[in-house]
Amino acid sequence: MQRLLFIGLAGFVGTVARYLLASYFARQFGETFPVGTLAVNTIGCFLGGLLFAVMQSRMPLSDITQAVLVIGFLGGFTTFSSFGLQTFALIRNGEILLAALNVVAANLLGLLMVWAGYVLGKLL
Questions:
Q1: Could you give the CA distance from residue 24 to residue 35 in angstroms, rounded to a whole number?
Q2: Contact at 8 Å (CB) between 24 and 36?
Q3: Nearest partner of 78 among 18, 23, 12, 21, judged by Cα
Q4: What is the residue-level pLDDT of the chain in tens, covering all 124 positions?
Q5: What contacts 9, CB < 8 A, 6 or more positions away?
Q6: How far apart are CA 66 and CA 48, in angstroms?
Q7: Closest CA to 73 of 5, 21, 7, 22
Q8: Which residues contact 71 (CB under 8 A, 6 or more apart)?
Q9: Which residues in the chain belong to E strands, given as ranges?
Q10: Rounded distance between C-alpha atoms, residue 23 and residue 69, angstroms
């Protein structure tokens, strides 16, 4: 139960950080191009890679700390970081075709589902 609470609190912090950062970029650059979302996603991927490296070699963290940071904070900050980390892990493990499939499938299916949701929403 304590693990879930900590993950949930870290998710809250990540979500608030995403909102504040995306709002800042929207104020600075406007909303014609989603600079805020792009910034959040790229920063989240950077943080994910940094945490991955630190957790692998320099400073092994407990399972709960890893879950709080990766699932909680980064999960609340951006799920794109999970996509980036999982794709990187596939590449690192020599699964280049699976990594490419993940990139293509995630983007195509994501856009397809946005379109499908939009069409359904218009019909309702």
A1: 10
A2: yes
A3: 18
A4: 899 999 999 999 999 999 999 999 999 998 888 888 888 989 988 998 888 888 877 778 888 999 999 999 999 998 787 788 889 999 999 999 999 999 999 899 989 998 988 888 888 7
A5: 72
A6: 11
A7: 7
A8: 7, 10, 11
A9: none
A10: 23
Per-residue CA distances from 30 to 12, 39, 54 (Å) = 26, 13, 35
Q: Are 81 and 48 in contact (CB under 8 A)?
A: yes
Which residues does 88 contact at the CB level (< 8 Å), separation at least 6?
A: 49, 52, 99
Q: How far is CA 15 from CA 11, 34, 54, 93, 117, in A?
A: 6, 17, 23, 31, 23
- pTM for the structure as a whole: 0.75
- CA–CA separation, 88 vs 94, rounded Å? 10
Q: Rounded to the nearest 5°, which phi and psi values hold at 27?
A: -65, -40
Give the residue from 82, 84, 75 showing the smallest Cα distance to 14: 75
